[in-house]
Amino acid sequence: MDKKGNAKKIVIVAVISVILLLVAGIVAVSSQSTDSINSSDDSLDIKNAVEKQLNNVAQAGISEAVQKFVEKFVEKRGVNPSDINEVSEVDFAALPEEVQIDNVDDSNLAIYEVDYNETGSGEVNDTKQVFVVTYSAEKLETTQDLIAHPDKRQFLQFGLTDETSGSFLNTAAGVPGSLNQGYVMMRQGSITGISTNLEVSESNDNEDIIDVIIYKNGEAISFGNTLNSLSGIQKDYDIQSKGVVTFQPGDTISVQAVSSNSETTFKNVITMIEITTVD
What we know:
It is a single chain. By secondary structure, this protein is an alpha+beta fold. It folds into two domains: 1-150, no CATH class; 152-277, Jelly Rolls (Sandwich), CATH 2.60.120.40. The chain is built from two helices and 16 strands. The chain has helices at residues 2-57, 64-77, and strands at 84-89, 101-102, 109-120, 123-135, 147-148, 152-160, 166-168, 170-171, 183-184, 189-202, 209-216, 219-228, 232-239, 246-247, 252-259, 265-277. Strand 3 and strand 4 (123-135) form a beta hairpin. Helix 1 (2-57) packs across helix 2.
């Protein structure tokens, strides 16, 4: 009796184990199916929301390719479809500064501008643009025929090793800068960034500041670095959008670092200025 009882218990336990495994498998499959359905639902929701918004703000007759791009853009960047303000075709006779294209015309491609609000912490921060380029594979023998010029970023290097309370910085060639001597611009563009690292040698007042000032053709512009005067290594960096401080070919860029107190001195200055050009 004992052996048969034990055998029955073993069989019952085995059956229960199989049932539990089957249930676990069903739950796992059900969970995966739910995730798949939720993912499909999310994509469908985005598609429907984008389509509804484009019906309100997009220029009539935009292609399916543009709509799909906006759907992917919204999903990838986390942009709310309601923050899409406008979708319109760009006039080839008045291309924006951000778009420069060679070797094609409007019979080969179309360019659309998507204006949208970039949000953060529930508030609108800025209105931005993204451009969509669509082209006909039948009319272009190869995509190499399509030449688009993105913005180009370069860096102007300035520095100074001598201890000073105020001085123009040297160029990378070691030549001292001045109001009229610095880097001469060869293309049209904008000043979009500046960073500075320096060593404060002596400071008599912690409220003193050291200003790093950018000059264009001998005139100070309203963009630069401000560092505190605590002894030791100090650094600062600032960026801004292109188009705020612009320059033309032939303009001269130079940099000066100066303390608000002549008794505060510094040395080993390293400054980089970022310029952005479009051609």
